[in-house]
Every structure is written in C-alpha cells, then in structure tokens.
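User: Can you help me understand a structure? I only have the sequence.
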Amino acid sequence: MKTGFKDKVAVITGAADGIGKAIARRLADQGASVVLWDIKADQLNALEKDWKSSGIKVKVAQVDISDETAVEKAFRETVEELGQLDILVNSAGIVGPTQTKITDYPTSAFDEIYRVNLRGSFLTCKYALKWMERGGYGRILLIASIAGKEGNPNMVGYSATKAGVIGLVKGLGKEYATSGITVNGLAPAVIRTPMNEDTAPEQLAYMASKIPMQRLGTVEEAASIASWIVSEEASFNTGFIFDLSGGRATY
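Assistant: Let's start by predicting it. Here is the structure, written out as tokens:
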C-alpha cells in the first residue's frame, strides 16, 4: 500500500457510488482516513462494512449537502473525532431533466439541481475552509463538468449549475492562494457512472459523440487525476479546472 496520504483526513461527498466512491477508495489505498458522505444510507453502511473488513480507515455519514446545518455539523463531528480536515472532494451532484427545452423545464427541477450542485458546492467549501484555515493546509476538489464549460443543449439546469461550480473554483482559488489551501475543479465529459444511467439514451449518445476518443471515461481515470490534484505534490495549482474529457475540452 502506498502512503502518499498517510495522516491525512479526507471528506468525499457523493461517495456511495460512482466517481466519489472511486476517489475515496484510491485515497484510502494510499493511506488516508476517509469520511464518506452521501444521502444513500444503505449503500454507505454496506460500503463501510466492506471497507473496514479490508482494513481501510473509513467512516460514513448520511449528509444532504444542500442542508447548511447538516453540512456544518458533519464537518464539526469529523474534526472532533479525527482531529483535522485536510482534503475535501465534492462529488455529489444530480443531472436533472434531460432532453428538455427550457420552455418545458420545471422551475422546481431547476431549484433542486441548484440546491445540490451549486449550493452544495458553496456550503461544503464554506465549512471545510473554516477548518482548513486553522491548520494552514488544505486541498479542495469540486467535480464540475464539461457541460459547465461548453453547455449541453436541453440540460439547462445541469449546464448552468456546473458553470457556477467552475466560477466558484476560480474565485476561491484566488481568495485562498496564499493560505496553503488549494481549490481546483475537475471537468469530466461523460463518465460511466450510476448517475447517468437514467439519462435519456439520445442525450447520452449526443454527449458521447462529442468526445474525440469516441468512448466514455471511467471512474478509475477520474480517481487517478483527482488523487494527484488533492496531493501535496500539486502545490502550485489552484483556481484551475482540469480536463477529463477525452479531447472534447477546447479551453
């Protein structure tokens, strides 16, 4: 086992499956104590049992990242129990309606996707940074999307909120540039995850067709680049959106 994250405490949201789970496992395999957040309690508990049986230092918490009180409490309890907070990876997110024109897009659906994708990113950063500032060190990674850079038609809620996540990364990266805390983002194209299983096939086909490599990305590929971004080695990178798009990104 590598120990690149030995003595580091990492909170990973959306960690019950998909990209979040893959990143959490990679950090744990490299020595980190990982705290998994998700709203899916049954999956979290099963994961905790499985990982602990393998000797992984893991704790779980059912947290709705759009709930400010819940987020503040979960961070406080993490630090009270483990003594510090070094890494935040915010991978929790929802897609919302697809193949839906804005004129047919339910405002309630837009509000919900905003609450999870953008408000959730804001809240997790707000309370993680309070603890990281005390230690003078931190690594924050927000999972954005290529949709936030380019915009996906008929997915206005997802595209707009992921663009907001990119703006949050750029602003916070500059805000904390001299603090020992870095804030970066990752903009994947379509990654094969449970989150996109419910995406309309024609929407998924459109997004995949835009990828020059002509394939979907994997969660393992996401975990590989993410683990470097939140490592001590990535000390001169902040306020940046890393590409994970199979060649689709143009800036």
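Now, to help you interpret it: The chain has one domain: 9-244. The first helix runs from residue 18 to 29. Let me know which part you'd like to focus on.
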